[in-house]
Amino acid sequence: MTRDQFELLAPGGDLDSIKAAIAAGADAIYCGLDRFNARNRATNLTLDNLNGVLRLAHEHNCKIFLTLNVLILESEIPAIVRLLSQLNTTQIDGVIVQDLGLAYILKHHFPDLDVHASTQLNTHNEGQILFLNQLTASRVNLSRELNINEIKHLAEFGREHDVMMEVFVHGSYCIGFSGICYISSARNGASGNRGRCSQPCREEYETTKTGNSYPLNMKDNSAFGDLEALADAGVYSLKVEGRIKKSHYVYTVVDNWRKQIDRLCNGVELSSDTRELYTVFNRDFSNAFLQGDFGKAMYIDNPRDHAVKHFSKVYKCESVEDVQVVKKKLYDDKTAIIETVAEKTQDFDVSSNQDSGRSLKGAIDVPTLPPLTPASPSEQTRLSVLISSEKDIGLVEQADIDLYYQMPMGLKSECDALIALFQAHPQLKPWFPAILIGEDYQAARSFLAAIKPDNLITNNSGVGMLAQALGLNWVAGPQMNTTNSYSLKCLNEEFAATGAFISNELNMKQMRHIKRPESMRLFYSIYHPNTLLTSRQCLFQQTEGCKKIKVNKGCLKRCEKRTSIINLKDNPYVVQKHKGSHNSIYSEHNVLNLELLQDLPQLLTDVLIDLRDIQTETKVSVSKSELIDAFGALLNRHDEIGAEQLHGLIQPTANAQYMKGL
After folding, report:
1. What sections of 218-246 are H helices per DSSP?
2. CB-based contact 507:172 (threshold 8 Å)
3. How confident is the model at residue 354, as a pLDDT?
4. What is the reported pLDDT for 129?
5. Dist CA 521 CA 500 (whole Å)
6. With contact defined as beta carbons under 8 Å apart, do 222 and 241 qualify?
């Protein structure tokens, strides 16, 4: 092993942390500006000090990647184009993106800027890597939930297509798959897709049957002992999480990883000494996702710093006085780290007065993007219906609707039965989930090749790649997070998508100027159970109790359960596991958004109502067939009487996200 086979990638939430990371030997640092990045709570950089940071980092052979890893609103396109023009005059080493419209603009107007795919794109299969490669991504940050074998497979596949793999090796775990977690957004408009996550998963809940008050709180990730396996898997970038952590934390973690990497490269036995990692903030550590061994041991019923508890066990404390000694030692150790960081960075100058005098805020060449021509308004909005049960397939006979069937996340084990089902009902259309890992993604390939549906909706871009290769009409689903016209243009021109859903996180003002390409349909879900997050973890081990210690393939295929958890700050949430899919959390009440039909009647070509069997507290007083008729009548008439009738049939409902927006 040689040192250039790895990149140690460190967080830089403020100038002090950036300096600390450089001093500790980081090969690269990811940091954000004060706009357009997924850690709004970090101090972040300004354009004024960016050049100074770049100069300092490059003097120490350290790269700087800028995080632009949020969804971009239509109104922000001119500002983001100007920012990219400014970045184009710097020595920035790469930009990290989530938004497909931004990726499209980078590809076609800023080809010299190196593009990295954010963890918010939730990449976990081959098709997604091909999708992002087509948008010129040179590297992909893989989903945290993958095990080492899944990572190795994707790293090998990536190398064949000149895409490097980046893996989180230390720091916070999220309970839900990134990019499709809307729990904070639904609660108070603080979207994780805009860097504002308020972390409801770390909060206290009414104590569950299993005695847990923090049932969604996971331990921190640490792959410190897995470096050899990561090297064998072909991972290039080892990423430390923590842009809202302090500089002494960044220094300690990066320093320990730097030494561990150097040991591997020098053929020295790897260290198992984690004392320093436990000295700075942690929630205890787990490498269970990486080991594919996840279950009860990944949770901890306390979201605060675990350091005192850890060392109290190490030193076998038996009294309050013993614990006080531990606290004192921790305080002294942290103080020593802070002093070390201060000493090592005291000569690190990031002022701009040593630069060439070029200001990033002065006159600059900004490309003019070609004007977008919106499609003519649709004369009639078409109704789509989503189901998840074979008993509802008869609804396909209802006049003038498109009926979609929910495909499972564990598609492999059900693929043959689903092929037979769709062959028996050729009018049925598939709806693919956001998560399709490994053989379940390969099963999607087999299914599409066998069925060749006349239309499909997918929340997974990898399935979009399969559809494009087979020449099938495909629509980007709501969890592909489309929020601007350039995302539509990207999906249509780059991937031959024939339609897309507008994100349910947007409000009317954020939607009204979105322009639909002439060859695309524009969808919106006006009625649905609100999926807040999806987790590869088992959420019942901490709530209802589950006899299994860890999750296995049988859990995915066979388990079907439901419970609820009550956040002490606000509403209950529904936890439901469906056969064939991972655990999900839903809002207590379904979303019903009929206001959009009044606010923007010309925007959409299609609306969807979600009639899957998800048990929330919302009650419907008529049959599914009658409900479809009521929605169809409303679309035909666009009147307030129809809207009132629907509100009477479906109670209670919510629509807060549409009111707040991103």
Report:
1. 227-233
2. no
3. 46
4. 98
5. 7
6. no
DSSP states along 101-134: HHHHHHHHH-TTS-EEE-GGG-B-SHHHHHHHHH
Which of 416, 21, 326, 41 is closest to 192 using CA atoms?
41
Long-range contacts of 575-579 (CB under 8 A, 24+ apart): 575/539, 575/540, 575/543, 576/614, 576/615, 577/538, 577/539, 577/540, 578/388, 578/408, 578/614, 579/408
**Mean pLDDT, range 145-163, rounded to an integer:** 98
Assess whether pLDDT exceeds 50 at residue 357: no
d(C-alpha 2, C-alpha 266), whole Å: 8
Confidence of residue 43 (pLDDT cuts 50, 70, 90): low
SS3 430: strand
Q: Are 158 and 99 in contact (CB under 8 A)?
A: no
User: pLDDT tens digits, residue range 267-305?
Assistant: 999 999 999 999 999 999 999 999 999 989 999 999 999
Closest by Cα among 313, 334, 312 to 321: 312
For 249-273, give the secondary structure using H, E and C. Answer: HHHHHHHHHHHHHHHHHCCCCCCCC
Strands of 348-501 (E only): list them: 382-387, 401-406, 429-432, 456-458, 474-476, 499-501
What is the phi-psi region of residue 400: left when phi exceeds 0, alpha when psi lies from -120 to 50, beta otherwise? Answer: left
Task: Give the span between the Cα atoms of 148 and 226, in whole angstroms.
Answer: 9
Is the model's pLDDT at 338 over the cut of 50? yes
Please check the confidence at residue 42 and state whether its pLDDT lies above 80: no
Contacts of 397 (CB under 8 A, 6+ apart): none
Instruction: Report the alpha-carbon distance of residue 541 to residue 555 in Å, rounded.
Output: 12
Cα–Cα distance for residue pair 572/623, rounded to 1 Å: 26
CB of 598 closer than 8 Å to CB of 526: no
Angle at 501 between CA 418 and CA 601, to 5 degrees: 130
pTM (two decimals)? 0.96
Confidence of residue 358 (pLDDT cuts 50, 70, 90): low
| Other C-beta atoms lying within 10 Å of the C-beta of residue 31 | 28
Distance CA 438, CA 502 (A): 28
Whether the per-residue pLDDT at 396 is higher than 60: the answer is yes
The yes-or-no verdict on residue 376 having pLDDT over 90 is no
- Nearest residue to 31 via CA among 40, 44, 20: 44
What sign results for the dihedral spanned by CA atoms 642, 643, 645, 650?
positive
How much of the chain is helix, strand and coil, in % rounded to 5?
A: 40, 20, 40
pLDDT tens per residue, range 542-598: 999 988 888 988 899 999 999 999 999 888 999 999 999 999 999 999 999 999 999
Look at residue 2 in the predicted model and tell me its pLDDT: 79
Check residue 437 and give its pLDDT: 98
- How many other C-beta atoms lie within 10 A of the C-beta of residue 636? 13
pLDDT tens string 582-618: 999 999 999 999 999 999 999 999 999 999 999 999 9
Q: Which helix (H) or strand (E) covers residue 158, if one does? A: helix 148-160
Look up residue 561 and give its DSSP letter.
E
- Strand segments, DSSP code E, in 407-471 are 429-432, 456-458
Rounded to whole angstroms, the Cα distance separating 47 from 27 reads 22
- Residue environment code for 642-657, b if the CB has 16+ CB neighbours within 10 A, otherwise e: bbeebeebbeebbbeb
Length of the chain: 662
Residue type, 381: T
